[in-house]
Amino acid sequence: MGSDHSADRPDRDDPHTELPTDPDAVRPLHLRMDALAWVFAGGMAGTGLRYGVEQWLPAEGTGWPWGTFLVNLLGAFLLGALLEGLVRAGDDDGWRRRTRLLAGTGFCGSFTTYSSFALEASLITHRGAPLVAFGYGVTTVIVGLCCAWLGIAAAGALLRRGGEVS
Fold it and tell me: How much is the pTM?
């Protein structure tokens, strides 16, 4: 078993480490304080950066909400690249798990914003521009998927060119 799995085991002196750990005896990741701390730290950074972008490019009236649009696309790209790199690096434990929690769940999760996206589309509709709202919604989803795919492809190409991470 990997080095971090022993921290999840209730009895570290178990002589039968070749056997799987009883899932009922392992504290789930979302209930572990160390995991929550990594997510919280990444979340503070992502939220702060998103706030800065929203101040720089505020949504106004029936215009295209460029700030939210850009953070969601950039976040999709970053998350795709991050997860591709982590998957190629090995199992989800040790530094890979901490990186996923900090940068993926924490930073990208708070940097991107579905709630602002949905609110802005609704407000644009209520302000009399339903076609802009529809275009914003469809474009965000389709281009967001493309950005995630591009992140995956870019990370894969970089790792193939520079050697696999270990």
Answer: 0.80
